[in-house]
Specification:
alpha+beta; 2 domains; 3-stranded antiparallel β-sheet; 3-stranded mixed β-sheet; 7 helices
Length: 197
């Protein structure tokens, strides 16, 4: 289990903070921040790929599952999908089984970007499962700052996704490169199925 704590806003200069492993992340849309500023968190724009979950958060729609089935042999499914802070400049983040989407990035994007992002983040689920928390965070921490981390190399673009499954932990590419590869494939599948132009 990932250990985290939310610090009191007064101990961090008025900014509620989540401490996760050795990462410190300021969260702009928390109950404390809303109470302090009087601002309401924005609502996510509607998408054909997400629908409200029964209890909390969101889940993939039948169309999203249809696209994922065209990408993965065994589509990974998050235990929860929610909107919240995803890190500086990130559109989404996956921590163990929870996908968190940045609402500003989501609201500024279209349906093609939505399915790309969802597929990208869901690719991290089997990586977490295969590597475990410590190895995942260690590897991801080393790869994240690489200039080419989100660039899909030609050799990877020519590689079938089924050869990367089930773990998506091939050392020839970064985990984000493999996630970008699956995101690109999701867009291709969604276009083929007529869901997006």
């Amino acid at each position: 289990m990932v250990q985290y704590k939310v610090t009191d806003a007064s101990s961090t200069g008025g900014v509620p903070t989540i401490v996760l492993a050795n990462l410190i992340c300021a969260t702009p849309w928390t109950a404390n921040a809303v109470a302090a500023t009087g601002a309401a968190a924005p609502a996510p724009v509607a998408s054909m790929w997400l629908e409200p979950a029964m209890l909390v958060g969101y889940r993939l729609t039948a169309k999203a599952h249809d696209v994922f089935s065209g990408v993965f042999k065994s589509p990974p499914v998050a235990t929860a999908i929610r909107f919240g802070w995803a890190g500086p400049g990130n559109s989404g983040v996956t921590i163990v089984g929870v996908v968190t989407l940045d609402i500003g990035s989501w609201n500024a994007a279209g349906e093609g970007d939505h399915i790309h992002l969802l597929c990208h983040e869901h690719t991290h689920l089997p990586q977490w499962a295969a590597l475990g928390q410590i190895a995942f965070l260690a590897r991801y921490g080393l790869e994240y700052r690489r200039a080419d981390n989100y660039v899909v190399p030609t050799a990877l673009a020519a590689t079938s996704i089924s050869s990367l499954e089930p773990t998506f932990t091939n050392l020839s590419w970064t985990m984000d490169q493999m996630a970008e590869r699956t995101g690109n494939e999701a867009v291709r599948v969604a276009k083929t199925k007529g869901y997006i132009p």
